[in-house]
Amino acid sequence: MKIKSENTSGLLLIHVEGRLDAITSPEFEREAMPMIQQSGEPVLIDFGKLDYISSAGLRTLLILAKEMKKADNALALCCLNEAIMEIFSISGFQTIFSIYPTIEEAVSSLK
Amino acid sequence: MNKRLAYKLSISILSAVILIFFMILLYNYYISRKLILTNVKENTKNLTSSAINKSEGFFRVIEKITKNISYLICDNDKSENEIKNILSNIVKNNDEICGSCLAYEPYKFKSNIEYFAPYFYKKADTLLYKNLAEDEYNYPAWGWYHNPIEKCKPLWSEPYFDKGGGNELMTTYSVPFYRPNGKTDSLIGVITADVSLKWLQEVVSQVKIFETGFAFLISETGTIITYPDTNYVMKESIFSLAEKFKDPDLKKVGEEMIAGHEDFVPISSALFKGKSWVYYTHLKNNNWSLGFVFPENELYADLYKLNQTLILMAAIGLALLLILIIVISNRVTRPLHALAMIAEGFGTGNFDIDIPPSQSSDEVGSLNKSFVRMQTALKKYIENLKLTTSAKEKIESELKIAREIQMGMIPGKFPAFPGRKEFDIYGFIEPAKEVGGDLYDFFFIDDDRLCFAIGDVSGKGTPAALFMAVTTTIMRAEGQIAGLNTSSIIERMNTYLCNNNEGNLFVTLFLGILNVPTGEVEYVNAGHNKPFVIKSNGVVSELDTSHCIPLGINLNLSHTTNTFKLEKGDTIFLYTDGVSEAFNIHDQQYSIKKISELLLNLANHAPIELIHHIVDDVKAFSHDTEQSDDISVLAIQYYGKQLLKTSPPDYQLVIKNSITNLSSISENITQLCNNWKLTTEVCNRVNLVVEELISNTIFYGYTDTLEHDIILNLMCDKDTISIEIIDDAKEFNPVEQPSTGTNSAITEREIGGMGIHLVKNLTDSFTYHRIGNQNSIKIEIHFNKKQS
Questions:
Q1: What is the pLDDT of residues B660-710, one digit of tens each?
Q2: Does any domain span residue A43?
Q3: From the CA atom positions of chain B, what is the Rg in Å?
Q4: Which of B117, B118, B226, B566 could be disulfide-bonded to B519 (CB atoms 3.0-4.6 Å)?
Q5: How many contacts (CB atoms, under 8 Å) link A and B?
Q6: Is B492 left (phi over 0), alpha (psi -120 to 50) or beta?
């Protein structure tokens, strides 16, 4: 799992690459949490290069989402592949997250 | 505690003392009362008798004087002056007499004088004279005159007011006097002596009884003659007073008095202002009655005083006693309190408290010494206990390790031969103690021949376990030598066990060799329970075997080898006597019959199901009793030769319960999926399911911090991936977990419970079994190979 962040046009964009499983999700949380806490801007997570997500990854997303909600800021996801989309759909996460097919669409919506 | 004990002691002793004291006081009161009453009666009689004597004497004197004068006068005629002289002398010389009269019958003094009654009386110490015949007095009409004449004897008159005479309240003693006149005496007149009631009053009032006690005098008719309250005198009678005060008791006393009786009675009368005693007696002179009134409190004054003194003394005594009790109980309980504190210290494990030595030789002192002894003994005991506990813990942990070793000697991983589809084998063992003497084993001698055995070492516990270990080892060693048959394996085992048997143990053993391609079984039964054969059509029968003696007893075994054939679907079920001889709380045995009955319904069940059916039933049967013997069961179901056998390579992975091992699982699964040419999607799905379930087990399944094995079996068919996860974590059935809500908003969403939900939705079959102490989860994921 690799994580990169950049500030573009008034939002924090986080790229996640690889796997979000029981081992890597705690790392993801450790790294992403301070980023979103400090940014004060809407956050977009790019799952374009995410290969795999398990419930541990979902759990971390949920924790981040609750944190954003507390700060009254938007959290959106984009570029989910088919398999990951299925996991989101089964878990019902599809309905609780704003999910966009591309970064551009996400950016324009979040503005 | 100190205070409470002292308090209890004081209260109980004081109560007892107070009770005893009051009983004594009460008794004393009644006895004293009785004594005092008797005493008072006596005293009263003495006291009053002098008053009575005085009164009677008083009256007697007057009577005598009057009578003497009558004799003096009646002898001869006296001149008027002589008479006046006599009368004036009487009145002058006698204080008691306030007046004296000589009243003549008509014409008896002088034939020319009809009435003549010279009367001398005292008025303020002056002697006065009056002729009662000279005014309107009309003396013949007065009672003092005519009553004695009528009765012909001297008489005391009723008290009266002598109006026109002495003009005061008085009573008169009248003596009729006669002169001889032929045969009869003729009445000449009446000589009288008056006694002033005032005088009487003075006389009676001199009688003082106690403080406020007094005497009173009543006449024949009950009229009050003297009384401290002079308003009553001559105006009231005792009966009118009884009426006035509505006092029947007083009336009764009055009746008794005028009847001339004498008594000493209690009376509660308003007239006497409260409780009093009355002593009354009769005066013989004039039929009057004298009464003496004693207020009760004065009568009992001594008694009251005595009681007061007693109560005062008792109060002081009780106060002193209380102080004494408190001091003593404090002295007694203080060391007890100190000991209690020490005992409390002992309770918290502090055995190094200094117990202050006690000098006293009483019970507290001996308790103190006992405490010191107890302290020493406890210290010693605790030290011993620490030593033995650590020794015991060591033994226990060693036993635990021994158990693991022993269980490790018995094949425990199932499916045991995932590649062999011709048969299925499953075994289960549960020692009654940490380690036991039961055993089962199975192994391939060569590609086609499966050697299997079940046995039971005599005895239980560690010795049996060691013998079992030897037996298993020998069996494996001998059995692995290809070409051997059951007969020679048994023989060689027996020889070894007989020659190396210092403990004189033996083992019953059923040893068989299954020819996997044909289903033929040859076997030797060395004293073991007969196995059951369950035919695929449901017929259950005990394997008819000829026994030989158990191994380890005699070098000469003289055994026989038997054979039988397993058809497709047949099962052979082997067990030790821990199953058939399990006891329930009513001391009943499970019995072989019960096993066979249960097996009737278990035809065509896989060995694992069959065995757990039996084991669960036995456990339910004896659930409230301690397991008395090791339980071992082994079952083999024969399927026959599988002609279509193109199974993909199966895969087994055993990992330790650490989350970091997940990445190696993921790598292995990915590698395996590549080998099986599965799509990334299917591969991810397998990965996800395995990760969710194993991470669940690792995170939540273990109650200890020890290392545990988790077995992961993977099989791939042409369109199905079968996953089996076996762990020895606590029982947890994920299939039965309720699905988490998936529609709640972010803030309401529970973190957790998602993994199982994902597994349920990503798999085609998801089953759970608790097998012995293991969780077994079986999962199937169907896929379409065309996708690849």
A1: 888 888 999 998 888 888 888 889 899 999 999 999 999 888 888 888 889
A2: yes
A3: 67
A4: B566
A5: 71
A6: alpha
Which residues lie below 8 Å from residue B63, measured CB to CB, with a gap of 6+?
A: B154, B173, B285
Question: Which residues of B are less than 8 Å from A91 in CB distance?
Answer: 742, 754, 757-758
A97: exposed, middle or buried (Cβ count in 10 Å: 0-12, 13-18, 19+) = middle
Number of Cβ atoms within 10 Å of the Cβ of B397: 10
Instruction: Give the rounded percent of residues in chain B with a pLDDT score beyond 70.
Output: 96
Q: Indicate if the alpha-carbon torsion angle B730, B734, B737, B741 is positive or negative.
A: positive
- Distance CA(B755)–CA(A81), nearest Å, equals 20
Report if residue A111 sits inside a domain: no
Say if residues B535 and B524 touch (Cβ distance below 8 Å).
no
Non-local (6+) Cβ contacts of B283 within 8 A are B52, B55, B56, B59, B217, B289, B290
The residue ranges of DSSP E strands in B373-435, in sequence order, are 423-430
Degrees to nearest 5, angle at CA B546 with B545 and B552: 110
Establish if A14 belongs to a structural domain: yes
Give chain B positions within 8 Å (CB) of A63.
Answer: 751
d(CA A38, CA B308): 96
- Residue B248: φ, ψ to 5°: -65, -30
Distance CA B541, CA B716 (A): 38
Length of chain A: 111
pTM: 0.40
Q: Is B397 helix (H, G, I), strand (E, B) or coil?
A: helix
Please name the residues in contact with B118: beta carbons below 8 A apart, sequence gap of 6 or more. B80, B83, B84, B87, B101, B102, B129, B131, B132
Minimal-distance CA residue of chain B relative to A98: B746
> Which residue type is seen at B8?
K
pLDDT digits (tens, 9 = 90+) for B79-126: 888 888 888 888 888 888 889 998 988 888 888 888 888 999 988 888
Mean pLDDT of chain B: 85
Contact B684 A58 (CB under 8 A): no
Q: Omega of the bond prior to B531 within 30 degrees of 0, cis? A: no
Q: Cβ atoms within 10 A of the Cβ of B45, count?
A: 16
- Find the mean pLDDT for residues B161-168: 81
ipTM of model:
0.91
Domain that holds residue A68: 2-104
Rounded Cα distance between A19 and B497, Å, is: 58
For A96, the enclosing helix (H) or strand (E) is: helix A93-96
The nearest alpha carbon in chain A to B742 belongs to A92
B688, closest residue in chain A (CA to CA) = A54
Q: Is residue A44 part of a domain?
A: yes
- B745 to A87: CB separation less than 8 angstroms, yes or no: no
| C-beta of residue B781 within 8 angstroms of C-beta of residue B762 | yes
| B55–chain A Cβ distance below 8 A for any pair | no
- In the stretch 10-69 of chain A, residues with CB closer than 8 A to chain B read 19, 21-23, 51-52, 54-56, 58-59, 62-63, 65-66, 69
What domain count does chain A have? 1
3-class state of residue B291 by DSSP: strand
Total number of residues shown for chain B: 788
Beta carbons of B66 and B192 less than 8 angstroms apart: yes
Q: Looking at the complex, report in whole angstroms how far the Cα of residue B561 sits from the nearest Cα belonging to chain A.
A: 57
CA angle B521, B522, B524 (to 5 degrees): 130
b/e per residue B739-775 (b: at least 16 CB within 10 A): ebebeeebeebeeeebbbbbbeebbeebebbebeeeb
Q: How many other CB atoms sit within 10 Å of the CB of residue B413?
A: 12
Distance from the Cα of residue B263 to its chain's centroid: 62
CATH number reported for the structural domain that contains residue A28 in this entry: 3.30.750.24
The whole-angstrom distance between residue B602's C-alpha and the CA centroid of its chain comes to 58
